[in-house]
Every structure is written in structure tokens, then in C-alpha cells.
Amino acid sequence: MSDTKKLVGKNLMDFPITVIDKETGKGKSSSIAELSQQYEHLVLDFYTCWCTKCPDTAKELEGLATKFSDKNVAFLLINLENDDEGAGKFCKDHGITKCISSIVDDDEIPEEYGIKGIPHKCVVKGGVVVGNGPDVDLQSLSFSSAAPSDDESTAASSSSDEEQQVDASKLSMNAKAISAEFKTYEPNEILLKENPQRWVMFPIQYPEVWEMYKQHEASFWTAEEIDLTQDMTDWEKLSENEHHFIKHILAFFAGSDGIVLENINCNFASEVQLPEARAFYGFQAGMENIHSETYSLLIDQYCRNDEAEKHRLFNAITTIPVIEKKAKWASSWMSSDLCFAMRLVAFACVEGILFSGSFCAIYWVKKRGLMPGLTFSNELIARDEGLHADFACLLYGMLEKKLPQAVVHEIVKGAVAVEQEFICDALSCDLIGMNKKLMGTYIQFVADRLLVALGCEKLYEVKNPFDWMELISLQGKTNFFEKRVGDYQKAGVMKAAETATSGEGESSHAFSMDEDF
């Protein structure tokens, strides 16, 4: 079988490209995978400016782009010389306006494309290659699916969050193909390949991972350290809408830590082979139990005179639809059928995005000087969960094979959509200094921070709408340890960590939910 035919019938192979704006000549980084997220079908034409046959093929694609303008298909010219000026001139000289113009360094194209000469064509339908090589008959192409109209797109975005809330069961065909491909890499990943030293902690081989474990160890606390004496007095001062808001938040938290805990125990703690990382997961599992206990105690206290409401909140994953949907999104990423990299990113989203609106809401209560037990426990848990998200980003950075940015964006968009829907339901009406629009923007802000920590480009480019979050964060850093739980960070633990890691610097994978950037 020829090299060009080997790819036919297989899933599309990704590679980076730079898309050239034909008006300005400016380039924008993208990838074949990212375009396959936007279009159901792709037709690729690899060319060079000096090729005498390439203009005719480009014009043929231009005609097909006009013919199939009502279909969800992209016609892509790919300049193999990585020459943006040449690509722009080529399109101008030959009247190319409908096709997407792009450039690439030919060394970055997977060998599976089997490019031996130009022009070289590749046709992709639904994420699967159906034609590849110089002899592909473009005139015989047909595409059955139409692109959605503007009205349909608007209706979908405004009336159906279901399509946006991509969980593991609704991944695009291309993302599923990438997951299958990445599973083949896992036996060679340093995090996942069998490690005969995994049962012995020393000598420390990965100081950054060990330091993060020691940081978590130094931050140990228990539910008994939360003082709820003042909370019931303040609870009576809150409105019914505020009660609804806080109870929904606590109801989700009470069950969500159990989902994270199950994923650690059933998946990550056994899959990851580094003893330093296993130490972190072991400690995280213990802290997730403490988080769950704390939220359950808060619900038990605030609803102590309403057994039916207490039962509804304790069982919110089955009794409150919006919380059921949020929990379903998180638990869908536990399947071992998915590659580790996707699951790692998804659970970074669980602790970095699905918790963000709720943490912010409780900080809003703190801003008003109310509910000290609730707000102090929120500070403790928010710091823990921030560290968990940091850890996920750290491990992701250690993977040799990173997911295409488009796949990471797809996962993050799903998390943002489900969190925004949850907040809209919990926040049944606008409160002073807090409304659905501001919270939606804040969730996008946090998502952008997580994307940067994962080494990806931002999706939303929004600013933190709550300036008081930054003030509270600053105050927390200065007087946090002066509270009643003054020994929250155990003395000497971090000193020991510094000794064990031979003075290695702090991790650069820090992720927070409050600071601008």
C-alpha cells in the first residue's frame, strides 16, 4: 500500500498551521484539529508558490468552495514554504477569496500524509480521511450536511445549553480520535509508564511534585476547627433568595468532593507511577473527605429545623436537576476509555472552574461581614482546591504529548457552560453587587486563567468583574494565619520540604481564581 493510501479510512492527523488573513496578511495560530471543530468536513491542498500545477488546483478548490458554500465544509490552501507573504500574493494573483489561506513548516506535518509531490490533496469527512494524495478527484466530491444558519446558531446558543455543555459522552469525533491516539502514547509517558521505584519515596526524583505535596501537608486542617457560633444569627438576617443561593452552593459541594475522591482512588492514584505524585493524591483524598464533612455540617446546621430540605440538599445530585447535570459532567470524565491527558484537564476544570462560581459567591458573603464559619471554611477549601488545580497543571506540563489546544478548549468550554447554567439557577434573582451576568463573566475569567496555566491561549479575554475578590485575596494573604486556626500551616513542614528538594524554586504552574493578568 502506498504511503498516501495508508491514511485513508483513519482519523485525521493533527498538525499546527498559521491561518493568513487575506486582507491584512496577518497570521493567527491554529491547527487542523481546531478547524475540524468548526467544520464537519475539510479539503486540504498542500502547495508551494513555485509549483506550476498548484494554481490550477487552487482555482479548482475555489470553485468548489463556491459550489458548497451552503455546506459545513472548509477548503484549505496550505503553503509548505511557511511563507506568509508568498501565500498572500498567491491568493491575490489567482483570485482566491473563498478558500482559507494558511502556511506551515513542512517538517511539522505528520509522515502519515505521505506527501511526496505537490499539489497534494486530502479530503476529510466527519474527522475521517476519505481521500489522500495527488490524484484525488475533487470534482466527484459531495457533502450532505449543511452548515447551520445564523438563526439556527443563535437559537442553539440562546435556548439549548445542552449542546454547549460538552461532557465526555459528547466529544467531537476528532477529539475522540485524538483520545484514542493519545492512549497509545501513555506507556512511554514518564508519569504513567511502570516505575519499579513507585513504592519507595526517597530519593526524591521530582522536586516540584514533592514540594507541592509538602505544601498540601503543611495546610492540614479539620472540620472541628470551624466555629459556627455566629452563623445562625447571621443566617436569620439573610433573605430567602440568599438562602436559596447559599443552599444550592453547599448542596453541590457536599457531593462534588465525593466525585473527585472517587476519581483519585479509582484512577489517578493508581495510574500515576511517581511516588511523589501518589503522596499528593493520598493527601488530597484525605482532604476531600474533610471538605465533604464540612459542607455536610454546614447544611446540617443551617437546615436543622427542616428535615425534608436537609434530605433534598444531601441528595442534590439526584433531587436538583442543575446539580445533577453538573455532577454528571464531572463524573463523565472518569472513564478509563478516555486518554489520561483529557481526564487530567477535565478534573483541573472540575476543581478550577466548576467550583469557581460557588467560591466567589461565598466570598461575596464574606465581603458583607456575615457568616464567619461559612466564609472561613470557604477560605480553607478554596486554597486546597486551588492547590489541586495547580497540581493538575503541573502534571499536565510533565506530559511529553500535549493535547491539541482545540481539544483543551473544547473541554474548558463545556465546563464553563455547565457552571454558568448552575449559577443562573442558584442565583434566582439579582443581589446587591452580584448578578448572573457578572458571575458568568467571572467564570470565563477563571477559565482563561486555567487555560494559561495549562499552556494554552485564552478563550474569553475578559477582566475580573469583582475587584473585591482581589482585595479579599490580598487580605487573606496578610491576616489568614492570624485567625483562630493559627497553626493551619504546620510549623517546620515546608522547611523540611525545602531541605528534601535541595532548594528547588517554587512551581511556575500556579493557578488562582482572583488575580488579574
Account of the 3D structure:
With 517 residues, the protein is α/β, with parallel strands linked by helices. The protein has two domains: 3-156, Glutaredoxin, CATH 3.40.30; 228-500, Orthogonal Bundle (Ribonucleotide Reductase, subunit A). It contains 21 helices and seven strands. It has helices at 3-6, 32-38, 54-67, 84-93, 150-159, 161-164, 173-185, 207-218, 231-237, 240-271, 275-302, 307-314, 316-319, 321-332, 340-352, 356-367, 372-398, 405-426, 436-453, 467-479, 493-500; strands at 16-20, 27-31, 41-47, 73-79, 100-103, 120-125, 128-133. Strands 2-1-5-4-3-6-7 form a seven-stranded mixed sheet. Helix 4 links the parallel strand 4 (73-79) and strand 5. It is elongated, with a radius of gyration of 26 Å. Mean pLDDT is 79; it is low at 145-163, 472-489, 491-497 and 501-508.
What is this entry, summarized?
The protein has 517 residues and is α/β, with parallel strands linked by helices. It has helices at residues 3-6, 32-38, 54-67, 84-93, 150-159, 161-164, 173-185, 207-218, 231-237, 240-271, 275-302, 307-314, 316-319, 321-332, 340-352, 356-367, 372-398, 405-426, 436-453, 467-479, 493-500, and strands at residues 16-20, 27-31, 41-47, 73-79, 100-103, 120-125, 128-133. Helix 10 runs parallel beside helix 14 (321-332), helix 15 packs parallel to helix 18 and helix 16 packs antiparallel against helix 17.
How do the helices and strands follow one another from N- to C-terminus?
HEEHEHEHEEEHHHHHHHHHHHHHHHHH
Number of DSSP helices?
21
What's the CATH architecture of the largest domain?
Orthogonal Bundle
Average per-residue pLDDT, rounded, comes to: 79
Using only C-alpha atoms, the radius of gyration works out to: 26 Å
Secondary structure category: alpha/beta
Q: What would you give as the CATH superfamily of the largest domain?
A: Ribonucleotide Reductase, subunit A
Largest sheet: 7 strands, mixed
Q: State the end-to-end distance.
A: 52 Å
Overall, the morphology is elongated
CATH topology call of the largest domain? Ribonucleotide Reductase, subunit A
Q: What is the number of independent domains? A: 2
Helix content: 40-55%
